[in-house]
Amino acid sequence: MVDEQQIRYSDADLMEFKELITKKIEKAKADLDLIRSAYMNDLNNGTDDTSPTFKAFEEGSETMSKEANSQLAIRQEKFIRDLKNALIRIENKTYGICKVTGKLINKDRLKLVPHATMSIEAKNMQR
User: Fold this and answer.
1) What does the radius of gyration of the chain's CA atoms come to, in whole angstroms?
2) What's the farthest any 2 CA atoms get from each other in the chain?
3) What is the pLDDT of residues 41-87, one digit of tens each?
4) Which residues pair with 97 in a beta bridge?
């Protein structure tokens, strides 16, 4: 339970979050490598482009796939960057403090969204 007077998470809590975030970064980097390798395979035409039959629908779907992979890669890179920024906040001992309200972000929220910078209360105020 978060004490209302508590202004930051304890060092033990911060270390727990650091471990969680470090694991998420490793997984996110592995996922990004998979996305990139899928994209690179998409660029490898093989002998398909020498085939005499016209494959407009397949080419369209390949283009969509490349665009989707590109968007996935961009989102994944942003996710990794956000997680690394969270690690910096841990080092600064400012992790888990809402940038809008200045209150501690709920621990359960941080476990689900470890790169969160706003509490649910602040998020709802944006709507």
Assistant:
1) 21
2) 73
3) 755 555 555 555 555 555 555 666 778 888 999 999 999 999 999 99
4) 104
Short-list 14, 36, 5, CA closest to 89: 14
Share of the chain above pLDDT 70, in %: 78
Is pLDDT at 116 greater than 60 in this prediction? Answer: yes
Distance CA 52, CA 103 (A): 65
The model carries a pTM of 0.76
Q: Which residue has the tokens 């509490």?
A: 119
**CB 110, CB 116: distance < 8 Å:** yes
User: Using CB atoms within 10 A of its CB, is residue 90 exposed (0-12), middle (13-18) or buried (19+)?
Assistant: buried
**Could you give the 3-state DSSP secondary structure of residue 125?**
helix
